[in-house]
Each structure stands twice: as structure tokens, then as C-alpha cells.
Write a structure and sequence with these properties.
The structure is a single chain. By secondary structure, this protein is of the alpha+beta class. The protein has a single domain, classed as Aminopeptidase (3-Layer(aba) Sandwich), CATH 3.40.630.30. The protein contains 5 helices and 6 strands. A 6-stranded mixed sheet has the order 1-2-3-4-6-5, with helices on both faces. Strand 5 and strand 6 form a beta hairpin. It starts with a helix and ends with a strand.
Length: about 160
């Protein structure tokens, strides 16, 4: 397992940027959440390093049929609700290490051996990552409250 503190530091570096504007309190919450998620069946994490420095990470948790994001504005599409999904909670790449293919590599390695037929993630429509996911084939399947975030799905 990776060092949760190191993941938290990277999380803070990435999510303090606009449009997120998060701070140390959110990074502390992230550290607690990822450590709790790591105890769940179906948890998976991938990391990438450039030299000794962690350049990025991605993690998620396999969820059974019928699971749907608790802040979704509507129910999951029926075809998605009938199936287990792998929910990607985070994908983060250090700003100075972007543009090297790390994000795509992290997601590819995270998803390649998953038994679930679909992956789902939430992306802020104001973030550059949203357009990146769409270019990579992720499709809108819902929205989150309080808005400005879309749920995207990808067949695996």
C-alpha cells in the first residue's frame, strides 16, 4: 500500500488549484477517506513515479449492482444500475509532471484487470480533466449536486 500521507500531500498540491481551491482540511479528509476505502473489498490503487518523486496516483473501489453516487441528481441509467461498477474516486497528477502520459497510464493500469463491466467517475465540468476524460471515451451518465460536476462512465 502507498503512504497515505504522501498521497495526501499530492492531493493537496493538485486540488488547491482552481477550480477546486481546496486546502489542508480537505487534504486531511482525503487521507482519512482513502485509508477507509482501502479496507473495502474491491479497493485498488495505482501510482506513478518520476525518479523518487510520486508523479501521480489513481484509486477506486468496486461497487455492487445498484450502487450509485449518493449525491447524484437522478437514478443511475437502468443498464448501469443492473451491473457492478468500479468507481474511480481520484486521479491526480502533479502539475509539474503533467503532459507525460501519467494520467492515461494510471487509469489504464487501474482499470485493466477489473471484473466490473463499467467504470464511473465524477468530474468537475470546470476542470481541464473533464475534457480529457471525454476525449478518452468517458460518456455522461448523470450529474452531482450542487452542480457543475458530471458523472461519466466507460465500458471496461
Amino acid at each position: 500500500m502507498p503512504d497515505w500521507a504522501e498521497l495526501g500531500d499530492l492531493y493537496l498540491e493538485v486540488y488547491r488549484e482552481p477550480p477546486y481551491g481546496e486546502g489542508e482540511a480537505e487534504a486531511a479528509g482525503f487521507r482519512e477517506t482513502v485509508a477507509r476505502h482501502a479496507l473495502l473489498p474491491g479497493f485498488a490503487v495505482t501510482t506513478v513515479h518520476e525518479g523518487a518523486a510520486m508523479a501521480g496516483f489513481a484509486y477506486g473501489v468496486g461497487r455492487g449492482p445498484g450502487w450509485w453516487h449518493p449525491r447524484a441528481t437522478a437514478a443511475a441509467p437502468p443498464w448501469l444500475a443492473r451491473n457492478p461498477v468500479f468507481y474511480v474516486y481520484e486521479l491526480a497528477v502533479r502539475p509539474a509532471m503533467r503532459g507525460h502520459g501519467h494520467g492515461r497510464d494510471l487509469l489504464t493500469r487501474l482499470l485493466e484487470a477489473r471484473p466490473e463491466p463499467y467504470a464511473v467517475l465524477a468530474a468537475s465540468t470546470a476542470a481541464p480533466a473533464h475534457a480529457m476524460y471525454r476525449r478518452w471515451g468517458w460518456h455522461p451518465v448523470g450529474a452531482l449536486t450542487p452542480g457543475r460536476a458530471e458523472l461519466l462512465a466507460l465500458p471496461l
